[in-house]
Structure formats: C-alpha cells, structure tokens
Amino acid sequence: MEKHLTPIKSLTGAIKVPGDKSISHRAVMFGSIADGKTTINGFLTGEDCLSTISCFRKLGVNIQQDNDKVTVEGKGITGLQPSSEELYVGNSGTTIRLMMGILANTTFRSVLTGDESIAKRPMNRVTKPLKQIGALIEGNDSGNKVPLHIQGGRTKGIHYPSPIASAQVKSAILLAGLKAEGTTYVTEPSKSRDHTERMLEAFGVEVDEKGLTVSVAGGQELKGTHVEVPGDISSAAFFLVAGAIIPNSVITLKKVGLNPTRTGILDVLRDMGADITYQNVNDEASEPYGDLIIKTSSLKGAVIEGDLIPRLIDEIPIIALAATQAEGETIIKDAHELRVKETDRIATVVNELKKMGADIEATEDGMIINGKSLLKGASVQSYGDHRIGMMLSIAACIAEGETTLSRSEAIAVSYPSFFDQLNKLSQA
Ligand SMILES: O=C(O)C1=C[C@@H](OP(=O)(O)O)[C@@H](O)[C@H](O)C1
Ligand SMILES: C=C(OP(=O)(O)O)C(=O)O
C-alpha cells in the first residue's frame, strides 16, 4: 500500500499507545502453558501478537480475543497438542524464538515457519542452546533458517553463556528449562529486557537472578493469572520524537510501560535535551508504567553505545531521525544486532533517510549522523519493516513537500492505529 504524507504544523493532545508487544506475546504464551485461566487486558492487536494467538490455537489452546481483552484456557506445561498444520509466525521473531523454547518441552514434532523476512533471520542463536538442553531440531542451513522442525527430548539444564544480549534467546532457554532436569542458567553480556522473568514470577514460577545470570529450576508449573499490559514504549517512541521535532507541540502519552530494561530511549532523548516529564507513575506494578509529556525541544547530538543498546534496540530507527534534527553529531555503535531485525535496519534507515536529504552514514555496527538537516519529501519505502515505515512517516511530518511511503501496511505488525493516532494529534 502506498501512503501520501504531507508536513504537519504541530502535534497536540493526548493518546494511549497500544499494548506492549513483548508483554502481549508472553501473556498468551505463558497463559497457554499455565494451569487454569489467564485473562489479559490491554493486549496488542498487532499482526505479530495475532500470529502468537493463531499458533497456540493450532496447538489446541482455547483462546478468546475481543479487541484488547483476551482469555486463555491454559493447558498446563505438558498439555499442548500436536498441530496438523505448520505453525506460521508471520513476521514475528519473538513468536518463533520463544515458541521454540516452549516446544522443547513437548513430546511431539512441530514445524515452524514465517514470512520472507523471518526466512532470512538467524535461528541458530536459539537452536544451538536448545539442542544442548536436549531438543531435537532440524531446519534449513543446519537449523539456522525456517522451516524448523522441533521436538522435545530428554531435556537437561545447562549453563549457557549467551554471546549476545537478546531477550528472545534468554527467554527461549528459560522456557525450555521449565521442564528440564536440574537448573538452567543463562548469562548475558549485558542485560536485555526482563519481561519473561517478571511474568514467570507473576505466574508463580521462581526465577533467580544474580548479576547478569538468570536461572530457573526444572519441574516448576505456571498458574493462570491476570495480566495488565501497559502501553508499548517502543510505539510511544515515535510520538516522543515527533513531539520533540515538530514545532509547537505538546503531547501526553498515557500509561506507557516504564520497565527500566526498556527506557533507554528516555535516557537518550533527555541527554539530547528533550523536554520530557513523567506523571502518574506506578512503580509497584510487576511492569511499571506512567504518563509521559513531551514538548518541542532543541536537541543536541549524542553518543549511543554499550549497555544502553539493548535498552533501546528497537528505537534506533526513530532515534536516528531525531539525530538528523539535533545540533552536532550523533554516533550510534555496538548495534550490530540491527542487521538481523525485520530488515537490516542500519542499511534501511540510512538508505531511506538519505533519500530525504539527511547527512547519515552507515558503519559496520551503527551509524553516524550530522544534524540540522532540512529534510525534503521523497519516494521512500518501509521494505516491509513496521519500524522503518513509522520512522519515515514521522520524517514526512517535518519534510518539505510530499512524501510517498510504499509498503506502509507493514506498520500494522506492531501499531495498527498509528495513522489514526497521528491524525488525532495533528488535528487537535
Ligand atoms: O523478547 C522480545 O520481546 C524482544 C526482544 C528483542 O529482540 P532480541 O532478543 O533479538 O534482542 C527486540 O528487538 C524484539 O522486538 C522483542
Ligand atoms: C525486532 C522486532 O520484533 P521481532 O524480533 O519480534 O520480529 C521489532 O518489533 O522491532
């Protein structure tokens, strides 16, 4: 689908961004393998999370979904049933990688596959540790690419030093560890998002954390519960940057998730000089949340690297846009992981922003951006990557002239109401 976008004078008003994608996936997955019923409020109805529901239905789980309210009739950790069809995860890396951990607990064989983007993404990062735990996995490129065939075996706890800070890898291993003999440990090079750890605890599982090592003892069961999903900070990020760079703007983003493993974007934007304030913060919830108010700001460049990267990995495309409007240079490094997301996000961000006149260069593990560029409307594309599509739509709001965005439908993967909310704020 092609979208024609024109500049916006200001953004004002309040919105509630949709539910957190990482938490929505996990609520359905953990509810499915729990004993008893799980209710979810604030579920993200984006395509990725609908893929998760569809896969668990194929495994025999009864799931009712009414907009953002979901009820899951849990089957227990050994109660999933074989699917006669392939499990199709669409565009969702989180679905396939976490499901592999769960399927390592089954006695039957399942086949997992996905769209053209999933077909390119590396799965060795999970097949390798899961094989060590005892799962039987086969697939293209020695188990690195879909379709993947997976079956549980005699699983035994391992201690896995993960070469990358990845919540998908950590979660897949911990989930496989739930039924393994002994204890399963994962050590990361730096801390990735901890939604799995927090939610397993809410489902009654004991999770141990010592520094960068997380572990679960095998033989634990999950008990169905209620999950309240806060707004997705990765979706809010597009409006945080839009509010900062579009003149005369003041926006309130309500009930945004503020889990410290996800708030790197707030640290960076404040460091760059953005005027952000917090209201109604609830730190007590298993997943903290609060309202964020952002005003038009004069930004300056920043260096973004190291342990901060996993705390804002999905926000780098929109941070790159903010950097094009900042005074001075922004350097993003240690972000090699961007190369294996829905697209190679270093290449797609740099290519498309260059078409709009940005001064931006790719490096092997990041990018270098010189700010204060006057962006011009251009013909750009999302390459089927939701976050690239949204970043370019916000770029179009400040560009001179019209921008044509092709493959804009990809945005529905994580933010189906994105254009409605953008319109609402720009008309207010
Ligand atoms: O666990 C999750 O929910 C996610 C983890 C991150 O991926 P990695 O685990 O590959 O870093 C992130 O990029 C993705 O959008 C969601
Ligand atoms: C990388 C992302 O998701 P996933 O890995 O689940 O496809 C994302 O949403 O930016």
TrEMBL record:
Phosphoenolpyruvate binds at K21, G93, R121, Q168, R345, R387. Keywords: Amino-acid biosynthesis, Aromatic amino acid biosynthesis, Cytoplasm, Transferase. It is an enzyme of class 2 (transferase). Its main location: cytoplasm. The active site is at D314 (proton acceptor). 3-phosphoshikimate binds at K21, S22, R26, S166, Q168, D314, K341. Its EC number is 2.5.1.19. Pathway: Metabolic intermediate biosynthesis; chorismate biosynthesis; chorismate from D-erythrose 4-phosphate and phosphoenolpyruvate: step 6/7. The keyword Cytoplasm applies. Residues 6-422 form the Enolpyruvate transferase domain. Catalyzes the transfer of the enolpyruvyl moiety of phosphoenolpyruvate (PEP) to the 5-hydroxyl of shikimate-3-phosphate (S3P) to produce enolpyruvyl shikimate-3-phosphate and inorganic phosphate. Belongs to the EPSP synthase family. NCBIfam families: aroA. Monomer. This is 3-phosphoshikimate 1-carboxyvinyltransferase. The lineage of its organism: Bacteria, Bacillati, Bacillota, Bacilli, Bacillales. The gene is aroA.
